[in-house]
Specification:
The chain has 191 residues and is mostly beta strands. Helices cover 12% and strands 45% of the residues.
Length: 191
C-alpha cells in the first residue's frame, strides 16, 4: 500500500491542530537505525486505504511510505483515535529493515461457524484469542491466520497449536492456550 508522507517542521500543539483541521494526520516514523521522524499524511488517502482493507488486517499491512525521493517500508504500531468522533488523531509507523525480524500481532480468522456441529446443536463460537503475536522478517509477515471450527462439538475447543504457522514465522505466545471454543447456551441440548 503506497502512502505519501510529508515532513513536519514544528511540533507545537497549535500546528498539530491546524494540520488536523486541514485534513491531515500527524504521524511519527520510528526506526532502529535512525532517529524518529515527524511527518503527516493526507486523511483522504488513509481513509481510502482503510475502506479497501479487510477488517482486522491493519496491523499486518506493510505500507510503502513515499517522502519525495525516499521510500520507507513500515507497519503501523499504534493509532490514536478521537474519543467521540473516532477520527484518526495520530499514527505511529515502525520502519522495517529487510533483514531484521519484526514482531506483529496477526489476526486469527475463524472459519466454518455456520457448518459447525456444536453450533447446529445450539452452541455458539467464542473466540478467546483474536490475534497471535509472531516474529519474522518483513517479507514473511502473514496477513492473517485461519482456524477451522467445523468439526467442533459443544464444549470443545481449538488451541493456538492448531493453527498452521509457516516455518519462517516464530510465534511469541504459549501455543497451548485455547483460541476458540464452542460454548453452550442455557437450555441447549448436547449430543
Amino acid at each position: 500500500m503506497k502512502l505519501a508522507i510529508f515532513k513536519r517542521e514544528t511540533l507545537k500543539k497549535g500546528d498539530t491542530k491546524r494540520l488536523r483541521r486541514e485534513g491531515n494526520i500527524p504521524a511519527v516514523l520510528y526506526g532502529a537505525s535512525q532517529s524518529n521522524e515527524n511527518v503527516y499524511l493526507k486523511n483522504d488517502e488513509m481513509q481510502a486505504i482503510l475502506r479497501g482493507l479487510k477488517s482486522g488486517l491493519l496491523a499486518t499491512t506493510v505500507f510503502e511510505l513515499v517522502d519525495g525521493k525516499k521510500t520507507h517500508k513500515a507497519v503501523i504500531k499504534d493509532v490514536q483515535y478521537h474519543v467521540t468522533s473516532y477520527a484518526i488523531q495520530h499514527i505511529d509507523f515502525a520502519i522495517l529493515s529487510d533483514n531484521a525480524p519484526v514482531s506483529v500481532n496477526v489476526p486469527i480468522q475463524i472459519l466454518g461457524s455456520a457448518e459447525c456441529a456444536g453450533v447446529k446443536l445450539g452452541g455458539f463460537p467464542r473466540q478467546v484469542i483474536r490475534t497471535l503475536r509472531v516474529s519474522c522478517l518483513p517479507k514473511d509477515i502473514p496477513q492473517e491466520f485461519t482456524l477451522d471450527i467445523t468439526s467442533l462439538d459443544v464444549n470443545q475447543s481449538k488451541r493456538l497449536s492448531d493453527i498452521a504457522i509457516p516455518a519462517n514465522v516464530r510465534p511469541l505466545a504459549k501455543m497451548s492456550e485455547v483460541a476458540v471454543m464452542i460454548g453452550k447456551k442455557a437450555g441447549a441440548v448436547s449430543a
